[in-house]
Predict the structure.
Amino acid sequence: MESPAYVLEFEKPLRELAKQLDELRQRSIETNVDLHDEIGAIEKKIETTRREIYSNLSPWQKVQVARHPRRPYALDYVKLICEDFSELHGDRQYRDDQALIGGTAFFDDEAVMVIAQQKGRDPKERILRNFGMPQPEGYRKALRLMRLAEKFGLPVLTFVDTPGAFPGIESEARHVSEAIAVNLREMAMLRTPTISVVVGEGGSGGALGIGVTDRVLIFENSYYSVISPEGCAAILWKDGAKAPLAADALKLSADHLEKLGVVDEVIAEPPGGAHNDPAQAAAALKYALHKHLNDLRALNTPKLLDTRYDRYRHLGVYEESGAVRS
């Protein structure tokens, strides 16, 4: 388990204030002196500083928050907002990919199919989960569960949190690109309501492989991008240290994605990020999912498919030029 004292570079002012607060409390105990006012002043300053820091984060800083080791992962949210989650295993072709998990659960007393990318907390679980990077069999398992959900009329909820699909030789040998491509096609035609939530990292096709849904939601400090900032910097500037510049250029943060129409709603996080109050973050997620599921359930199947088609046809901007004349 990561140390609870883990702080990001821009959070260091908060660490110093927390240290002062601990010292005041300890002094109050040791000297039996009432320092209530001084303690209250420091607590207020911590809250104010936290709000100031987190209301002015750069895109690169938001990427760092999305990767925070204490940030709630997909299964944390499933436990907080769903009941009776029952995991289903395997793709029925190769093996069970632990980086991508799925199964049935009850959300607001209604059965749903949950599909999620899951990272690990400690070294042992990180290896088991392959650091949240699914392989082809993970995406094929996801597709099997989506088809099962379609058969029984269950809405599909996907939780995106991956730096990308695993790019290793074995993954490529088992056709990871083909597995993702098939998922994109099949999700576009799935005859049941679908919602995806970017809870942490949304990296490239690895995220998109479970993200072609009727509604796409994203947490305030998550990101969703065609490539990681480090990868982009390495390609464009041959220098991974330029990742902050790449993060800004990619427009990968939640506010930019909402303006561009890539996501349908940005879910607000507690001051200090979702890792500062997972229960409050889960409550905000549950409210958003409830609202969007109700909207989607009101649509008949043809209307659902037409609306999904229109959503993705209207993403991006393109121009057509006429034939060049001599």
User: Anything to note?
Assistant: Residues 171 and 195 are 27 Å apart (CA to CA). Residues 9-56 form one domain. The chain has two domains: 9-56, 63-313.
